[in-house]
Write a structure and sequence with these properties.
CATH architecture of the domain at 172-200 and 256-346 and 377-409: 2-Layer Sandwich
Distance between the termini: 38 Å
CATH topology of the domain at 172-200 and 256-346 and 377-409: Dihydrodipicolinate Reductase, domain 2
Strand content: 15-25%
Strand order of the largest sheet: 13-12-11-7-10-9-8-14-15
Number of helices: 15
Length: about 425
């Protein structure tokens, strides 16, 4: 699978669509959307850099729990807008260490949330209540119950929401093409999907370290359980790597949820399950292994986690009665090769047009139309990841009701649907 460093390079290049790259100057002030950024670490900085290059938005606020990152983000914004600032058309960017202050800033239209997974739901909920449009990184949630809350709050607030599942828009359209070919019967009747992503998370066992000056460790933990600081979770200062909080169940969903939120998302899309999910989760045949877990859908399709033939290397493999399609971020192929020969018919079913995930979100804000990865869609894709982690945790067959979002007659499994937040965050 493509490395994270390669992803950032590819995604940054994809962000500059021809329509955006050729713009010069800036749109009139009353035509620009004002943005705030909650979390400006590695992924947040990528979003900031990409959106700073657009003439139709203005970044007016940034927030983080690490002082050096806040300062770095402010410097980026001021450097990019220096020409406007010198002319008196830009009044500076405001900096916050608490996202609630950012949400209260007058004149703010929308927010980009790029915090650790355990810090997605509460900022989304409060942003929706504040009437802000939202772009939130994937996986959308840290547990299943959080997702339904986000969906309900976004719907009630009537704000535009985009989940950061960029594979629906970018990466040369490979995943979009795969979905359209599956939809239009190029592999016959879909029977099996194989998804290649990492393993479940583990409990955090990192040793205690001294909290660096300028880091608000209590705020970094937020709703998560109290524990001592460790730089593996929250690196010091400005950094360019993806922190390993993803590996620990208190803060993320392991590699299974981190990339699973991308690849399971494509699988759900191809099955037409953006508002639903599997009905059964079965453990791997070997109870000790962390691959081979199976999902069965009501339509009979079986999706398998990280189990491939030796000669297959792909992120998503769609198998049908007439062949298979293999797709990854670096390409698409089929067996037999003839499956991909020739364009689809004029009458073929097509995915929503989108070649730039940020632009799709901004266009939806202006038009009032839905995004390519709504809160409901992001929640359902994240739910598959959470179901997988619950399945690996319990290591026994589970029956799931997608409409009710509950396990059938299984109190132990249902107890894992939510994680009560800590302290002041219980009342959100």
């Amino acid at each position: 699978m493509i490395s994270r460093r390669s992803f950032l390079k590819a995604a940054a290049a994809a962000t500059l669509s021809p329509a955006v790259a050729t713009r010069t100057g800036f749109a009139a002030a009353n035509e620009r959307l004002t943005l705030g950024f909650i979390g400006v670490g590695t992924m947040g900085n990528y979003h900031l850099s990409a959106l700073l290059g657009r003439a139709d938005v203005e970044v007016v606020a940034v927030c983080d729990v690490v002082r050096e990152r806040i300062d770095h983000a402010v410097q980026q914004v001021e450097k990019r807008y220096a020409d406007r600032k010198a002319s008196g058309k830009f009044n500076g960017v405001k900096a916050y260490s608490d996202f609630r202050g950012l949400l209260a800033q007058p004149g703010l239209d929308a927010v980009v949330i790029a915090t650790p997974d355990h810090w997605h739901a509460i900022p989304c909920i409060l942003a929706a209540r504040a009437g802000k449009h939202i772009y939130c990184e994937k996986p959308l949630t840290h547990d299943i119950a959080e997702g339904r809350r986000i969906v309900d709050e976004v719907r009630n607030a009537k704000v535009v929401f985009q989940t950061g599942s960029q594979q629906r828009s970018e990466f040369n359209g490979y995943f979009r093409k795969a979905v359209e070919y599956v939809w239009n019967g190029r592999i016959g009747r879909l029977s099996t999907i194989r998804i290649g992503v990492g393993a479940p998370p583990k409990p955090c066992d990192l040793p205690a370290q001294e909290v660096p000056e300028g880091t608000d460790w209590e705020m970094w933990l937020g709703p998560a359980s109290l524990r001592d600081y460790n730089e593996v979770l929250c690196p010091k200062g400005v950094h360019s790597h993806f922190p390993a909080w993803r590996d620990y169940e208190e803060y993320g969903g392991g590699g299974l949820a981190d990339m699973g939120a991308h690849h399971f998302d494509i699988a759900q899309w191809a099955m037409g399950m953006d508002s639903s999910g599997p009905v059964e989760i079965s453990p791997p045949e070997n109870p000790e292994q962390d691959h081979g877990l199976r999902f069965r859908y009501a339509n009979g399709v079986v999706m398998i986690h990280n189990e491939f033939e030796d000669d297959i290397k792909a992120d998503c493999v769609f198998e049908g009665t007439e062949g298979m399609i293999l797709v990854s971020r670096d390409g698409i192929s089929s067996r037999p090769e003839s499956i991909l020969n020739g364009p689809l018919a004029e009458s073929a079913r097509r995915v929503i047009p989108s070649s730039n995930h940020h632009e799709n979100w901004l266009d939806a804000i202006r038009s009032g139309k839905g995004t390519i990865c709504t809160a409901e869609t992001g929640h359902r894709s994240a739910t598959v990841c959470h179901l997988a982690n619950i399945g690996y945790g319990l290591r026994r067959p589970l029956k799931w009701e997608p409409a009710k979002e509950r396990f059938i007659d299984d109190a132990a499994a249902n107890a894992r649907l939510s994680r009560p937040p800590r302290g002041q965050w219980k009342d959100v």
